[in-house]
């Protein structure tokens, strides 16, 4: 299921959501420009950029040697949110942020939403780091922060309708699905794949990279908590 649009109108211009999307796209274009020729020195520059500004868990926990500490590992908690592993990675993330971010921003207000987004992303990264503290694989992507947005949206608009592209083999159809089903199905998938990744780690195959599933799970749950903490008092009731 690929969500395309919800039926909850925005009451104001989602300037933070738009700004975050624009910043992510600009950083990705710069990142892409560094590695546009995989046969030349640009490929090394792109990898170096990821290693510098992506979140490497062992740098943050101090459990690895031989990696530079510039920028500060703490700073990379935030810079990593604006890096992506490819066009499908950033495309999927920005689609979800565009569909669900504006309504959460409406509820929290622009300033609170920015704090919410960064806090959810940071918490998601820390949760994944705690599970793989010695990993040398850099974590990149806005998925943790956007997972927080999804968690908040589910609490705020469980009965919203999401226009969804359903693809089952040769069967392709546009359908309208309640948000609680779309986001609930998404969360169950994260739990399933997260469990599989833990099993792979226990067999010694957890350092090859891939998706930080528990950053998604943690971000989603933290987003629900942050909604209660940051929502304006006059609209506290869910």
Short descriptors:
single chain; about 240 residues; mainly alpha; Rhomboid-like fold; 3-stranded antiparallel β-sheet; 9 helices
Structure write-up:
With 238 residues, the chain is mainly alpha-helical. The protein has a single domain, classed as Up-down Bundle (Rhomboid-like fold), CATH 1.20.1540.10. Helices cover 61% and strands 9% of the residues. The chain contains 9 helices and 3 strands. A 3-stranded antiparallel sheet has the order 1-2-3. It starts with a strand and ends in an 8-residue tail after the last helix. About 3% of the residues have low confidence.
CATH topology: Rhomboid-like fold
Strand order of the largest sheet: 1-2-3
* Range of helix content: 55-70%
Number of strands: 3
Kindly name the structural category.
Answer: mainly alpha
The CATH architecture can be given as Up-down Bundle
Beta fraction: 5-15%
Main sheet, how many strands, which sense, barrel? 3 strands, antiparallel
Shape: globular
Count up the domains.
Answer: 1
What's the alpha carbon Rg, rounded to whole Å?
A: 18 Å
For the record, give the distance between the C-alpha atoms at the N and C termini, rounded to a whole number.
Answer: 27 Å
Helix and strand layout, with pairings?
Layout: E1 2-6, H1 15-34, H2 41-53, H3 57-61, H4 73-79, H5 87-108, H6 110-131, H7 143-156, E2 161-168, E3 171-178, H8 179-202, H9 213-230
Helix pairs in contact: 1-2, 1-5, 5-6, 5-7, 6-7, 6-9, 7-8, 7-9, 8-9
